[in-house]
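U., I forgot to send this yesterday:
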Amino acid sequence: MIKNVRWGLIAAALAFAALSPTPAHADELTPMEGIASLPVADEIREGYKRELYPHWKDDDKNGCSAGNDVLIAKAIEAPTVGAGCTLTGGVWHSYYDDVLVYGPAGVDIDHMVPLAEVHDSGG
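Result:
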């Protein structure tokens, strides 16, 4: 029984495993063997506090939060960067539904893994 692993990760690994060739060397693991070899442990929720995981900071001190830095870096047409790193305009491609998104208000940046899950899993 696999515990504490998101089904999306399992599905992606299975899809990858189906497309992966047999390892070139006997000492290499296939993706499925790698998944099977992962240690399994109970999650620990004790001590989780949202404030332990700050994000959207301006680590590079350029005046833009990490979220806006990502928007600027990933734009296929760059937004205009105004005072206080206010973004206007710009175009982004959504890989999830293959549409173009015009303007930063249409883009939602979020965690791929919830922070409580990161904490529970030892992050």
